[in-house]
Amino acid sequence: MREAVFIKKNTEKWKAIEREPVTQNDRADPDVLTDHFIELTDDLSYARTFYPSSPVTRYLNGLAATMHRRLMRNKREDRNRFVQFWTLELPLLFRRSHRLLLVSFVVFLVAAALGWLSAANDELFVRLILGDEYVNMTLENIRKGDPLAVYKSRGQADMFLTITVNNIRVAFMAFVLGLFASFGTIAVMFQNGVMLGAFQYFFYERGLLLPSVLTIWIHGTLEISAIVIAGCAGLTVGNSLLFPGTWSRLESFKRGTKQGLKIVIGLVPVFIMAGFLESFVTRLPLHPVASSAIILSSAAFIIWYFIWYPIQLEKKFT
Fold this sequence. Notes:
Mean pLDDT: 86
Keywords: Membrane, Transmembrane, Transmembrane helix
Distance between the termini: 17 Å
Helix content: over 70%
Number of strands: 0
InterPro entries: SpoIIM-like
Pfam family, one: SpoIIM
Protein name: Stage II sporulation protein M
Order of helices and strands: HHHHHHHHHHHH
Shape: elongated
Largest sheet: none
Number of helices: 12
Radius of gyration: 24 Å
């Protein structure tokens, strides 16, 4: 779009934003202010990309700063900031990262398939990946008639804390290793995928695939999905270095890091819920219908919040 057309198209909107009330006493609607701020930052991003040295870019930058101060002064907006992060800001970040989310998912899926095939063709592969101690313990549990007794072997509170902290650590590792041009993140996704594939084949080989799925995926649906999404966050950082686009590499890196970090922070509640399910629910003798309901509900939530809802939100603003 030519600069003159861009200015003509948006001038009235910018003037209206300039006239927005400054404080809550002036009856400023924080929801309207937020919507206008998002529109304004979109215009600013467009101007920075196509007219970086133009006066209109400096004008929009100043107007955006003024709008930000208005939002910070508005008390109701301050109270709603937490809600808006989860209902608006974070889903829109997910939408911008959907392509990388697909890449992360494909890498994980391919790695899981390789783990399954490797375990099927090498009887020692499972021990190499999962460790002799775990394999021997599980074989003993199978002989006792309770193949998944490992989930009952520890106290619930201690198990919840340990598992949740470990999962969050893995997520942040996947994010931080994105600094190595995305290769570190891909390595984490590949390692976890291979482990999952070998793990599931171990139970399949003994005729326990369905019972294992109905037990393990009670918490695994959220846990594995969150790890894949954390891989997306790491790829966001790595790609900001590899493909800066019209931004300087430093500016692209700062934006990618900020976006990726917000995605990882957004996963913390998911890991907490996964830890709760693994520690308090997985050990219960649930009916297959109840287990299936939990698994399907978890999958539906992941698909809705991380894929469908961001797409609908983008359409709304577009």
